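lol forgot to send this yesterday, sorry. struct tokens for the thing we talked abt
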């Protein structure tokens, strides 16, 4: 594995939506890339915050009391325990920062739960 990771090349290798890929790790956190399109599931992460950074496209993070709309280079942190549901009308590329082992569907589980993918070295 190399020490240098190119975000553009890594995103180009992702073909499926809602399938996070680990770009790298730092301390106890994974830096993940994901392509998003459509609507996810409502869920919470009871024990951790979740950082979203939009790289391209427009992402809406639905919260029970409001919608947060993110464009390229926007960052939003969903606080631990806050129910949320990401959605995107068109494809979005995003970077996520979460503790290692965080499941994408949080406490909801279900068919959209994904195994964390690794990029080929």
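and heres what i got for the seq, position by position
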């Amino acid at each position: 594995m190399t020490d240098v990771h190119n975000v553009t090349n890594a995103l180009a290798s992702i073909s499926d939506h809602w399938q996070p890929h680990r770009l790298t790790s730092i301390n106890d956190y994974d830096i993940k890339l994901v392509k998003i399109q459509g609507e996810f599931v409502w869920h919470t992460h009871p024990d951790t915050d979740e950082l979203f950074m939009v790289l391209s496209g427009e992402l809406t993070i639905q919260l029970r009391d409001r919608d947060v709309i993110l464009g390229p280079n926007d960052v939003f942190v969903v606080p631990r325990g806050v129910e949320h549901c990401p959605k995107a009308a068109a494809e979005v590329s995003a970077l996520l920062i979460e503790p290692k082992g965080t499941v994408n569907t949080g406490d909801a589980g279900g068919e959209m739960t994904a195994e964390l993918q690794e990029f080929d070295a």
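The first strand starts at residue 21 and ends at 26. anyway ping me if u want another try
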